């Protein structure tokens, strides 16, 4: 395989990939195919099959790629999943000289930094194909989107294609196992998301939600369902429920859960889930429609993350630093009188 394209999805929380990333990937693949004659040109996460083991598949593709193409944006370096992909690929370059290793990473400025920010990586990315005015001011995504920049976009795609094809031809990088993909979400002061699964067969789905959170830059961790009631009191949470779980088990699990926990029933095509959704409704939990296929779950995973955070911010407790008085209208009035 020639190249691996890495990006921080800008369609955050929508459950869909950025369509302009697909457009650029397709155009770049066509160009590389025409110049190299290769049948298999590139890979990006839009080619993952529903329900696939994301971490394993991406690790495998990173290990086969000769060139890594990161789409730099203000979100890229703050996105733990994108940064992990770049680190994983660079682990394969450690035996190469500095200049030779640098050739195998062909960065693209997808969306530029705000004028008041600066990063060395962006300057290096512009140097790959030169700082045209259109590219510098707008980034490649805008040029891809807007017809007025059609010629500039085509010229840049051709330049990136030539660069990638040249590296693949002159600096062959044999397939090799990369370092494991280890996203490290930057939590800051934001509450972590907890994800529980009620049903032995939902472990992979739980991990999928955690991975979706990591891609969105949200710290997340798994939690046994029996611990959810205590831990969700001060953190946003997601509860996945097996459609074959008994009503009694579901009722016992959700009793006393705070209203900001998002519950999702994962069922087979023939499972009757009416009794379970009725229990969730009675418990006052925010819920989404049951999902029955891997494709539906893929679309819903990032939505679960964003909805859990939104509901927690709307209904969760006010968290203040130790020693900080809680907000008080009376205090404000007294201060004004003083």
From TrEMBL:
Segments for region (Disordered): 317-338
SUPFAM superfamilies: Toll/Interleukin receptor TIR domain
Entries under Gene3D superfamilies matching the protein: Toll/interleukin-1 receptor homology (TIR) domain
Protein name in UniProt: TIR domain-containing protein
Domain of life: Bacteria
NCBIfam families: FxsC_Nterm
InterPro entries: FxsC_N, Toll_tir_struct_dom_sf
């Amino acid at each position: 395989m020639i190249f691996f394209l890495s990006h921080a999805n800008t369609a955050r929380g929508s459950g869909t990939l950025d369509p302009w990333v697909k457009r650029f990937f397709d155009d770049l693949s066509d160009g590389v195919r025409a110049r190299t004659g290769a049948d298999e040109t590139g890979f990006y996460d839009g080619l993952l099959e529903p329900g696939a083991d994301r971490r394993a598949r991406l690790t495998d593709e990173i290990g086969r790629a000769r060139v890594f193409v990161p789409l730099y944006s203000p979100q890229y370096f703050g996105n733990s999943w994108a940064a992990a992909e770049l680190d994983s690929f660079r682990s394969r370059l450690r035996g190469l000289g500095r200049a030779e290793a640098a050739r195998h990473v062909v960065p693209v400025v997808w969306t530029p930094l705000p004028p008041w920010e600066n990063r060395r990586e962006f300057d290096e990315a512009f140097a790959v194909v030169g700082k045209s005015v259109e590219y510098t001011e707008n980034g490649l995504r805008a040029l891809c989107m807007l017809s007025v920049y059609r010629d500039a976009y085509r010229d840049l795609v051709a330049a990136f294609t030539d660069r990638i094809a040249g590296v693949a031809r002159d600096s062959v990088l044999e397939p090799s196992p990369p370092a494991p993909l280890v996203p490290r979400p930057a939590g800051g002061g934001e509450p972590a998301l907890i994800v529980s699964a009620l049903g032995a067969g939902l472990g992979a789905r739980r991990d999928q939600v955690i991975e979706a959170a990591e891609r969105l830059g949200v710290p997340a961790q798994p939690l046994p369902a029996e611990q959810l009631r205590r831990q969700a009191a001060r953190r946003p949470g997601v509860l996945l429920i097996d459609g074959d779980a008994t009503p009694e088990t579901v009722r016992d699990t959700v009793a006393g859960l705070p209203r900001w926990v998002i519950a999702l029933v994962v069922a087979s095509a023939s499972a009757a889930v009416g009794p379970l959704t009725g229990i969730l409704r009675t418990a006052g939990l925010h819920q989404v429609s049951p999902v029955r296929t891997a494709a539906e779950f893929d679309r819903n995973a990032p939505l679960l993350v964003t909805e859990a955070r939104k509901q927690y911010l709307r209904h969760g407790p006010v968290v203040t630093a130790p020693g900080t008085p809680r907000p008080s209208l009376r205090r404000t009035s007294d201060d004004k009188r003083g």
